[in-house]
């Protein structure tokens, strides 16, 4: 049987299927066990099993990962945790999984109260807790399975932090039941060059030992589990200068989120960085990184672009990119909630520390710096951001246009800043009222939709009237069939992941500006 989803990262592969376990549910405190001593006796062997499987894994990985796994193994083996859980079974007649849950909870509360480094360890205790509970209740361990050979990974959905850590040598392809083409999980899979299909309903129920995946067509079917991974097609030749057949320039820039991305972008011939998603540096950070630490992290990303233009975006936390050190609380509609620049309105000190780290990193590396803010809704917000960035000594300041209100008031916004960059991923989500993470509405999150292109045209017109640049840094910019259309609408730069550069560069060389305008 063949299933269809939305292909978000091309490549045809087949291999054994490995399912990512669903999140663990909080264990129930009833029914009370019949034999309390026997129930308590299950806890010790479960903690030992977890500790020894973590120690085994620690021996098979490189040094950084090894010390993390060794520490987690030591926590699992901690007799205090087992003793406290056993006591809860005996004294409160709790089933063993619930007792472990509560005992670990007490440890976590104490660690959080201690603050600093110890508070950060609470997340490790939660990891150990979930592993022990999984053993006790006969479930698969939570989180990404440890792959030892090339496999096709299948999940209901995958967090951006998990996707960012995937090893392209071991993950042949990624298939999710949920997710849209512009979800951050899809963006990261593309950046890693891992063939991927999202919004593939029913994939978790497909039988058979393996899966065959076509990441361009968006199809998935059962296979016999053998690995079939033809070498990737070579990229078209491109000389690294974005221009049309008639010489009209369209800067081709890169979207990056790590120093590895930046090195790949420089090697692929990017003229600069059009979007540095700084939040990607901190998807797993438990506390706000110190300014010096941020400076070093940003410098590592900017370093391959000395003397070249770079656009660094301030943190876009919230919604589908939660950062542990910026908890947003429960929001009924996180995509419409406090995210992006909105976080900074209550925490301007956080923004100021980031701006100063970004300015220092650019000075360290000699990159030609611009900064921009995500999720700006009004000209007043753009002016607020610009004044803070300029106070940090940053000369070129822009904002993202990814909220329809901002697109409609692009002229007023451009009066406050030096450039704008269209985030077509969010702009589509908000224009079509279609969650970018939801497979069921994926067809609306399509940048070929005329309503989206009309807004792009409006913003480009405002740019032309003021003589200020208008870029596109959403996934629309990476589509070779759309690049001439965006150029015809008046867009002046396109920013995309490194693997898309040559294809877009080659497509633009085939057309002149008159053709682009006619297409638009
Ligand atoms: C580039 C964009 O930002 P992000 O994908 O990080 O939300 C966008 O919304 O198009
Ligand atoms: Mg966005």
Automatic annotation (TrEMBL):
<dbReference type="GO" id="GO:0046872">
    <property type="term" value="F:metal ion binding"/>
</dbReference>
<feature type="active site" description="Tele-phosphohistidine intermediate">
    <location>
        <position position="184"/>
    </location>
</feature>
<dbReference type="Pfam" id="PF00391">
    <property type="entry name" value="PEP-utilizers"/>
</dbReference>
<dbReference type="InterPro" id="IPR008279">
    <property type="entry name" value="PEP-util_enz_mobile_dom"/>
</dbReference>
<dbReference type="GO" id="GO:0016301">
    <property type="term" value="F:kinase activity"/>
</dbReference>
<dbReference type="InterPro" id="IPR015813">
    <property type="entry name" value="Pyrv/PenolPyrv_kinase-like_dom"/>
</dbReference>
<protein>
    <recommendedName>
        <fullName>Phosphoenolpyruvate-protein phosphotransferase</fullName>
    </recommendedName>
</protein>
<keyword id="KW-0808">Transferase</keyword>
<comment type="similarity">
    <text>Belongs to the PEP-utilizing enzyme family.</text>
</comment>
<feature type="binding site">
    <location>
        <begin position="425"/>
        <end position="426"/>
    </location>
    <ligand>
        <name>phosphoenolpyruvate</name>
    </ligand>
</feature>
<dbReference type="InterPro" id="IPR000121">
    <property type="entry name" value="PEP_util_C"/>
</dbReference>
<keyword id="KW-0460">Magnesium</keyword>
<dbReference type="InterPro" id="IPR036618">
    <property type="entry name" value="PtsI_HPr-bd_sf"/>
</dbReference>
<dbReference type="InterPro" id="IPR050499">
    <property type="entry name" value="PEP-utilizing_PTS_enzyme"/>
</dbReference>
<dbReference type="InterPro" id="IPR008731">
    <property type="entry name" value="PTS_EIN"/>
</dbReference>
<dbReference type="InterPro" id="IPR036637">
    <property type="entry name" value="Phosphohistidine_dom_sf"/>
</dbReference>
<dbReference type="Pfam" id="PF05524">
    <property type="entry name" value="PEP-utilisers_N"/>
</dbReference>
<feature type="domain" description="PEP-utilising enzyme C-terminal">
    <location>
        <begin position="244"/>
        <end position="511"/>
    </location>
</feature>
<feature type="binding site">
    <location>
        <position position="313"/>
    </location>
    <ligand>
        <name>phosphoenolpyruvate</name>
    </ligand>
</feature>
<feature type="active site" description="Proton donor">
    <location>
        <position position="473"/>
    </location>
</feature>
<dbReference type="InterPro" id="IPR024692">
    <property type="entry name" value="PTS_EI"/>
</dbReference>
<dbReference type="InterPro" id="IPR023151">
    <property type="entry name" value="PEP_util_CS"/>
</dbReference>
<dbReference type="GO" id="GO:0008965">
    <property type="term" value="F:phosphoenolpyruvate-protein phosphotransferase activity"/>
</dbReference>
<dbReference type="Pfam" id="PF02896">
    <property type="entry name" value="PEP-utilizers_C"/>
</dbReference>
<feature type="binding site">
    <location>
        <position position="436"/>
    </location>
    <ligand>
        <name>phosphoenolpyruvate</name>
    </ligand>
</feature>
<dbReference type="InterPro" id="IPR018274">
    <property type="entry name" value="PEP_util_AS"/>
</dbReference>
<dbReference type="InterPro" id="IPR040442">
    <property type="entry name" value="Pyrv_kinase-like_dom_sf"/>
</dbReference>
<feature type="binding site">
    <location>
        <position position="402"/>
    </location>
    <ligand>
        <name>Mg(2+)</name>
    </ligand>
</feature>
<feature type="domain" description="Phosphotransferase system enzyme I N-terminal">
    <location>
        <begin position="5"/>
        <end position="121"/>
    </location>
</feature>
<feature type="binding site">
    <location>
        <position position="277"/>
    </location>
    <ligand>
        <name>phosphoenolpyruvate</name>
    </ligand>
</feature>
<dbReference type="GO" id="GO:0009401">
    <property type="term" value="P:phosphoenolpyruvate-dependent sugar phosphotransferase system"/>
</dbReference>
<keyword id="KW-0418">Kinase</keyword>
<keyword id="KW-0479">Metal-binding</keyword>
<feature type="binding site">
    <location>
        <position position="426"/>
    </location>
    <ligand>
        <name>Mg(2+)</name>
    </ligand>
</feature>
<feature type="domain" description="PEP-utilising enzyme mobile">
    <location>
        <begin position="149"/>
        <end position="218"/>
    </location>
</feature>
């Amino acid at each position: 049987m063949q299933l269809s989803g939305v292909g978000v990262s091309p490549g045809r592969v087949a291999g054994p299927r490995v399912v990512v376990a669903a999140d663990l549910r909080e264990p129930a405190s009833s029914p009370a066990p019949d034999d309390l001593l026997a129930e308590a006796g299950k806890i010790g062997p479960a903690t030992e099993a977890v500790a020894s499987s973590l120690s085994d894994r620690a021996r098979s990985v490189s040094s950084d990962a090894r010390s993390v796994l060794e520490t987690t193994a030591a926590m699992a083996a901690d007799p205090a945790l087992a003793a406290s859980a056993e006591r809860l079974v005996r004294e409160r007649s709790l089933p063993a999984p619930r007792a472990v849950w509560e005992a670990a909870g007490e440890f976590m509360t104490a660690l959080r109260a201690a603050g600093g480094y110890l508070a950060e360890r609470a997340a490790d205790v939660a990891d150990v807790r979930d592993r022990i509970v999984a053993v006790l209740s006969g479930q698969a361990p939570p989180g990404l399975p440890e792959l030892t050979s090339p496999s096709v990974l299948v999940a209901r959905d995958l967090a951006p932090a998990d996707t960012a850590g995937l090893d392209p040598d071991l993950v042949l392809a990624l298939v999710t039941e949920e997710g849209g083409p512009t979800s951050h999980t899809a963006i990261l899979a593309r950046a890693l060059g891992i063939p991927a299909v999202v919004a593939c309903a029913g994939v978790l129920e497909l039988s058979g030992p393996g899966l065959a995946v076509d990441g361009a067509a968006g199809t998935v079917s059962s296979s016999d589990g053998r690995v079939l991974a033809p070498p990737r097609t070579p990229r078209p030749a491109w000389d690294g200068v974005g221009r049309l057949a008639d010489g009209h320039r369209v800067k081709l820039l890169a979207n990056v989120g790590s120093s590895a991305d930046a090195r790949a972008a420089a090697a692929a011939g990017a003229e600069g960085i059009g979007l540095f998603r700084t939040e990607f540096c901190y998807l797993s950070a438990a506390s706000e990184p110190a300014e010096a630490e941020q400076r070093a992290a940003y410098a590592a990303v900017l370093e391959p672009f000395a003397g070249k233009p770079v656009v660094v975006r301030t943190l876009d936390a919230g919604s589908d990119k939660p950062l542990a050190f910026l908890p947003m609380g429960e929001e009924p509609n996180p995509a419409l909630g406090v995210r992006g620049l909105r976080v900074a309105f209550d925490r301007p000190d956080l923004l100021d520390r980031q701006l100063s780290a970004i300015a220092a990193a650019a000075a360290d590396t000699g990159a030609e710096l611009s900064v921009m803010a995500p999720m700006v809704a009004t000209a007043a917000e753009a002016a607020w951001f610009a004044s803070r960035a300029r106070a940090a000594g940053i000369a070129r300041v822009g904002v993202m246009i990814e909220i329809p209100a901002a697109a409609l008031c692009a002229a007023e916004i451009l009066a406050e800043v030096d450039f704008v960059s269209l985030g077509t991923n969010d702009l589509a989500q908000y224009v079509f009222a279609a969650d970018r993470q939801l497979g069921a509405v994926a067809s609306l999150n399509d940048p070929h939709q005329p309503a989206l292109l009309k807004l792009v045209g409006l913003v480009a017109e405002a740019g032309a009237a003021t003589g200020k640049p208008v870029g596109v840094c959403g996934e629309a910019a990476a589509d070779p069939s759309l690049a001439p259309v965006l150029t015809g609408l008046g867009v002046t730069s396109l920013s995309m992941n490194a693997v898309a550069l040559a294809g877009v560069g080659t497509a633009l060389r085939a057309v002149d500006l008159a053709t682009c305008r006619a297409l638009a």
